[in-house]
Amino acid sequence: MDDRPTGWRTRIPRERARPRWVRESPVSWQLAVLTVCFGGFMSQLDASIVTLTYPSLEREFGERLAAVQWVSLVYMLVTAAVLVAVGHVSDVLGRKLVYLHGFGLFALSSAACSLAPDLTTLVCFRGVQALGAAMLAGNSVALVSLGAPREKLRTALGMQAGGQALGLAVGPTLGGVLVSTVGWRWVFWINVPVGVLATLLGRYLLPRTVERAGGARFDLRGTVWLAVASAALLGGVSVFSGTPLPGWSGVVLLAVSAAAFRGFARREARAPEPLVPLSLLGDRRVGWGLVGALAGYLVLFGPLVLVPLVLTRHGESEMRAGLLLGALPAAFALASNLQEHLLPRRWDGRRRALTGAVLSMAGLLGLAFATPVDRWLICWLAVLGLGLGLFTPSNNETLMRAVPRELSGTGGGLVNTARALGTALGIAVVTLTLELGDGRGAGSVLPPLPVLTLAAAAALAGAATLRAGR
Known about the structure:
This is MFS transporter. Its main location: membrane. It comes from Streptomyces abikoensis. Keywords: Antibiotic resistance, Cell membrane, Membrane, Transmembrane, Transmembrane helix, Transport. The chain crosses the membrane at residues 21-45, 65-86, 98-117, 129-149, 161-180, 186-206, 218-241, 286-309, 351-369, 375-392, 413-434, 446-466. This protein is mainly alpha-helical. 76% of the residues lie in helices and 0% in strands. It is built from 20 helices and no strands. Helix 5 runs antiparallel to helix 19 (408-435), helix 6 (95-114) packs antiparallel against helix 7 (119-147) and helix 19 packs antiparallel against helix 20. The chain is globular, with a radius of gyration of 21 Å.
């Protein structure tokens, strides 16, 4: 039987099957998940490593920081704009196919970034690199959900979340070493061999797409509406995160986003083949699961950005601040991979996610009273990481079980869009804290304003867990 797409998809090549020995291996699903972890690792590594190049880019290209920041801003905006559309295309054409081409595009554009002769060229290639990253991120959760047995789904999603956490932990240290030794261009060159290796591994270890979404017509109008809405929302939030745009532009972008989301909803309600079926978003488990994903990454990125800033302001070295902060992503990775051993096996995903939300609240409260010289600081960071490591895979498991298998790419794109918005909100909270002078607080590493905001996010995540389980 020919499983190739039809209609507008007929010229797309067929996905190649895995070798027989891989398909029949009892660890085939683990090999597939580890391959996907490369994508999660690289996307988070790239997000956290590039900011280390800012001073070098300012000196080499003679540009101001306001211009250099577009190296990160364009990456974030393009990724947010196309994530859901990429997930939908993957459901139609094949998740393995789009994922492998995404890694190839990511590697090629990384090489182009490393050779950029000026800042404008670098920003343009970063936009292309973001498209490749979206092709990875939009399929990572879907490939894990489809490649792992249903009874192993939470474990598999934990491995994928652990790979992302590892990228966050390694990024700042690796970036500092590369920039200070061989130069900023190697921050991009390092993606090339990893991309080539991951593409080869994916060719032989990732499963082919079995269930595909139907549809011979692509919902271009819906894609444009959603792209504008997502990019404007993330851009509006980023205005309050220190990006070089006037404050009034943030209000305008948020208004544009609200109008575009309304246009998207009206379009999808009457489109014969919608980009995102509204029935999918109407499912309580999906809707509240997306709220939980947003809240979880808001809680994660607030301390990741704020704690090292506060520590260095109190005289700690960047090296020691980085080592202390490493306890957070390290505990995140540990809990997400070993939660089957940390909690009773009979517990369902809702109870596990709720436990993670409660632990996250405890870690935040501990950080609210910890000082930069407190020996318990690393412990509270670890508690926060453990809570998020328990919450994230369990929340995603509940969400993805509610998504039809033929729409798993669309579901994965929605998850990663929610994560991107949570990340931007976390950074915005930090920036607002510093601008208001609250960053000095009473000497604690998490001053009152971010504690209240992050605690509210953790509570929201717990509420989302309870609502999704009903």
